Amino acid sequence: GILDLSKVEAGKMTIDSIPMNLSSLCNEVVSLFAIKARQRGLVLDYHYTESLSPYIKGDPVRLKQVMVNLVNNAIKFTREGGRVTIDVKHMQDNPCLDN
Q1: Residue ranges of the alpha helices (H) in 2-78?
Q2: CA max distance for the chain
Q3: Which in 1, 11, 26, 64 has the greatest CB count within 10 A?
Q4: Is the pLDDT at 99 greater than 90, yes or no?
């Protein structure tokens, strides 16, 4: 939330880089919101690129926090009858991911 943003801006947030299962984390987030989306009359689409390894190094706590916030907002601000799509794929040459 707000406290995390202030930590990022101050350069005081630590982000882990540990082995994690991205596929499982994504499935967990989708499961968390499937009922909420259905109750709001929305379709929740989820696509995980088959060629993408489920195992990566990252911060599972922070990544889940970001995904939960994004999906929650997408569901909250999508009109009834709409669609929310989660598309997980590899992006080439992304400087944000370089160490």
Answers
A1: 2-9, 22-39, 60-77
A2: 42
A3: 26
A4: no
